[in-house]
Specification:
With about 700 residues, the chain is an alpha/beta fold. The protein is built from 23 helices and 25 strands. The radius of gyration is 39 Å and the shape is extended.
Length: about 700
Amino acid sequence: MIDTRPLSIFTLRLRHERHVVHARQRARDIAALLGFEHQEQIRLATAASELARNAFRYASSGAVEFLVRDTTPQLFLISVTDAGPGIANLSEILDGKYVSRTGLGKGITGTKRLMDHFQISSSAEGTRVEAGKALPPAAPFVDAEGVRRIASELAKSGATDPIDEVERQNQELLRTLADLREKQDQLAELNRELEDTNRGVVALYAELDQNADDLRRISDLKTSFLSNLSHEFRTPLNSIMSLSQLLMNRSDGDLSPEQEKQVSFIQRSAAELTELVNDLLDLAKVEAGKIDVRPRHFEVPELFGALRGMLKPLLTGNSLELVFDAEPDLPPMYTDEGKVSQILRNLISNALKFTRRGYVRIMAQSEGEGHVAFRVADTGIGIAPEDQERIFEEFVQIEGELQAGVKGTGLGLPLSRRLTELLGGTISVVSTLGIGSTFQVTLPIHYRTPGAPSIHVAPAITRQGTGVTILFIEDNQETSFVHESSLKMSNYHLHFTANIPDARAVMKTLQPALVALDRFIDGEDSLFYIQEMKAAGYVGPVLVISVIDEEDAALNAGADRFLAKPVAPFKLASTIRELLVGHVSSTVLLADDDEATRYLLGEALTRLGYNIVEAQNGREAIQMMETHIIGGVFLDIIMPDLNGFEVLRELRRRAPTQSIPVIVHTSKDLSPKEEDELSNLGAIFFSKREFVSDPGSGKLREILAIAGIGL
């Protein structure tokens, strides 16, 4: 049978007043030996002192026993017993209501607050108080041997003179007072800061009062909410779509049919939520008068061609026909093509959703002087007369036989109306239940600014460099930061803009050697700008970067290369180098003092189509970089002469080799500090164990692709 009784460390009889001091001293010493921190030692010593003083003052034959109870966690117990008459008003004392004639009567209640464990029993035969505190998590486990060791240490130290103990208490009191003074100073500083804040709040309220009339308007509050909500949602939604696309592309391995189905559900849900968020954001911007109108010349047949390709995947089957019909000799329009496209997309997608068979016909023809009428006609379910105005209200969806199986935001038509009005046009609908509907959007051929709505332009970001200029057109600040970090080892002069109007202004003053264009800016397709740049005289390469992996669309629009987000740092650097220099080296340097490793890795890379050069040590590797055009390096860490870290630092220090991809290929187990250094130096880690277990396989190809070492 296991003995669960507490282990006794030390017992002290209370026969003299100095024994109360000894009880305090022993409590502190034992607490220190058990691993308690200084503050806890003082609390335990104070508890022992208070309980011992009560026993000595009000009773006789008292004793203090120090024990360890084997619980989880273990408890350090202070047990004080006496043979006195007991405590008649114990409940009143424990409730904190008793005040004694000789003191405050707070010794027991104060001790109870200091402890994790507290029990008290009192009768005419005497009183027993048991107070305890859990041992610290880092304290060693105390068994019988541990108790004997602690008792031995106590025997060596002996008892301290009461005067010395009082001096020690005074020192502890002074230290506590100093801590209180420090906290008081901190509180005073906090109060000063709060006063400054209050003055700022008062000033802010004064400013808010000046604009109270505008702030009380419900439309402004709704606009602010929608705008903030939409902006906060867009970045995580883009990340979800990007990550799910990576999974669908099998970047990290194949998916099972069930996994592919699950990821497709994630993509579909994210796309639907993105549509809702974009509509909310556009509504908020239109209502606030802060949306950009970017007029440009375009032909209606070209607009119809882009819409046909974009919306054709929405056709549900051969029973539904999508027809585009533009009147011959329509004059070019000068308005915001992106917003016209957005209006028509909303109308056409609605028509496709609610039309089972027949056709959806999109027509464009001249309407009066200086206007073009776009009509979207369908043979769908139609709209009741009483609902034909309600459909333009936000979040309104008319109940019907097809609505149960069709999801929507209820924002497409309200947004279309406001965008139409923003462009100076009108929108109307004619519909008959069971026969179909025709929506008409009438727009001026030439857009004229009515009241100059506010246009918010994000400030340009630049990073100075002595090399050629690269212009990034990217509306996501985090992505711009990633691109800048990816090229931090290069010497390019980087310039970042957040929208197309800013890019136009930059192109007038700078002559970039390369333009990197985000595919979608503020939710609109920006591929049109490629031809606009070239028409204005730009002859350099264009790199399109997008979360939507549609390389053909980018190349057909005139881009020279396409990269899907997220882009590996060296993939971006090597692609830019290829576009600027005109070629990418397919030569890979193997820097390793182990001949067998060089042979195996070289053979695998040769089968993949790479040229191989070898270096047996770090110094030779640096020399090879000076005499060869190297597309990438496999670098061992443990080498004679110079180790891998020294070689890597030297490569990053030299301008010609700053951006060359480096794969650290070693058997060494790297420490977290070493891993951080490799990451900061732009290197990728590839364990030799991974290569040996699967030589020349997909893992090697994957590492090469991540590093950006192309053929």
